[in-house]
Amino acid sequence: MPVITCIEDLKRLYRRRAPRMFYDYAESGSWTEQTFRENVSDFAEIRLRQRIAVDMTGRSTAGQMIGQDVAMPVALAPVGLTGMQNADGEIKAARAAEKFGVPFTLSTMSICSIEDVADHVTKPFWFQIYTLNDDDFNQKIINRAKAAGCSALVITVDLQILGQRHKDLKNGLSAPPKFTIPTMLNLATKWAWGIEMLQTKRRFFGNIVGHVEGVSDPSSLSAWTAEKFDHALNWDKIRKLMDMWGGKVILKGVMEAEDAQKAAEIGADAIVVSNHGGRQLDGALSSIRMVPEIAAAVGDKTEVWMDGGIRSGQDVLKAVALGAKGVMIGRAFVYGLGAMGEAGVTKALEVIHKELDTSMALCGETRLGSVGKHNVLIPKDFHDRYL
Among 276, 353, 374, 383, which one carries the catalytic annotation? Predict the structure, then answer.
């Protein structure tokens, strides 16, 4: 294994190994990609306060997320097409997360099915569902998640309509890849990826193909998906999905205090402050900028998490200092997966954990529960720069 000291090292390896269309799928945002970039760059505006002469022994990053014990307050976010980044990618990521002691979330648009992942882990994982206008599909896939022992449902609430991602359109993104001349030329340089993909039977959207009437192959999937995102989504429909599940629910995609308060009112166990990684509404503020306002608005009524831009343990520490009880990571673990499979996901978690543990100690804290705004320096206009 090469020497990996940061998430950026994994990203460089990932870029060399993964086919261009799948690298671009992960490493892109919508339209001008302003929000995609600022999700990362806005963390740099927050500075840490160094403290000295504090007993750093016996420290711990452990905690809980919706009552589940975690080695650190970091969950693997739902990421579509993960099994195209590396063969059987969802299974590998889930195993790495389980061994490390953090939650894994399976996307509806995964390559490996719910049942595939459940067969390869020993503990419950979380399942993510979109707000679709097909109650029959919603109920069936929720029932499958229950049967697989999933312990929480993550409802993505910011995908009623797709934001345009230029790179995906230009690359002709599909699973498996369409064999156009440009794609074949690129795949010819990614022989290691290709050899692994040839050794697995999992190359389609396992939760959908074969489980939905009229969707038997990838060509029919795109038409089905375009029709199913619910443009008429409202809070009553979100509540209906929550009732279908009947267990712990996380609402992902909240970016305004008013929406966060409503989510708390209808009983969400946690909300994720998220702009979908800058892949939906370009020009929206970064997730980290919205955390303090949303955390203050809901108080202890529900857990506030965030995602978008987490590339280090210091980013996790800053998010917690600003009021988040936990974070989700997407690209950071995908870089590791695409670079080195399960071992790469483990390495990404190790890198983030080491940075979090060391930075927390140097800030004079031995427990994440004690971290707060007293540990950071925030620009005076960080919260109210925009009217």
Answer: 276
